[in-house]
Each structure stands twice: as structure tokens, then as C-alpha cells.
Amino acid sequence: MTDPVKATCHCGAVELSVRLSDGFNTARRCDCSFCRRRGAIAVSAPLDGIEVVKGADNLTLYTWGTGTAKHYFCKTCGIYTHHQRRSDPTQYGVNVGCIEGVNPRDLGDVPWTDGVNHPSDR
Questions:
Q1: Which of 77, 99, 93, 78 is nearest to 32 (CA)?
Q2: Which of 45, 75, 78, 87 has the least CB density, counted as fewest CB within 10 Å?
Q3: To 5 degrees, how large is the angle CA 42–CA 30–CA 96?
Q4: Three-state secondary structure string covering the chain
Q5: Phi and psi torsions of 60, nearest 5°
Q6: Model confidence over 40-80: pLDDT tens digits?
Q7: C-alpha span between 101 and 68 (Å, rounded)
């Protein structure tokens, strides 16, 4: 585990303290119908690796399909902060763009996950 990092939505109403599983080595994108529209790069954190420091009441939840993935957004600015993964429900994916001091562009070429052909959709 790495030292906690601070993640916030755009308006600052939501603030998270996040312990990443393996720093930015887990960075990836997904091409499922939702993620490809959202376009965010996500990094992994264990379920006990996220603490909502501020704004828990300002987070809203979106699910669809199998209901396994749980996507959290700020009610005020609409920014996606994190989600419980469909590919591994024991992990969260955290929006790299929300992590303080990190520009997703600096990560370079980020691998893609095949969310279109996910095993739980069969």
C-alpha cells in the first residue's frame, strides 16, 4: 500500500483520503458503455482504502446492468470520484483526475480493459 493521497471533486464539496493498491501502476481505462463515455483513467484502491473526509452526503450513486459496479459522483459539480469495480468488487477504481497534484496526461499511454466483453454480461 502507498501513503494516502487526497482526492477531490471539482467544486471541493467531496474530499477523499485514498490508499492506492500499487500507486499509479494500476492505471487503466475501460471501454464499457459507461466508461468510454466518461473517459476517466482509474487507479485501484482496496475497499478499506477510501475514507470520505468531507461530503459523504454530497455523493450520489449510479448503477446499472448487473448492479455490481457502483459509481459515485458529486451532486453539485457532477464529477465522478470513484467506483466499486465490476471486474473486481473487492476494489475501488479512483478517478486519477481527482487526485491532488496529478495530471492524467503525465501518465502517458494507459492500457485499456475490455469492458464490452465482460464475463458477467454473458
A1: 93
A2: 78
A3: 15
A4: CCCCEEEECCCCCCEEEECCCECECCCEEECCCCHHHHCCCEEEEEHHHEEEEECHHHEEEECCCCCCCEEEEECCCCCEEEEECCCCCCEEEEEHHHECCCCHHHHCCCCEECCCCCHHHC
A5: -120, 150
A6: 999 999 999 999 999 999 999 999 888 989 999 999 999 99
A7: 30
Identify residue 98 by its one-letter amino acid code. Answer: C
Amino acid (1-letter code) at residue 119: P
The C-alpha atoms of residue 72 and residue 101 are separated, in whole angstroms, by: 21
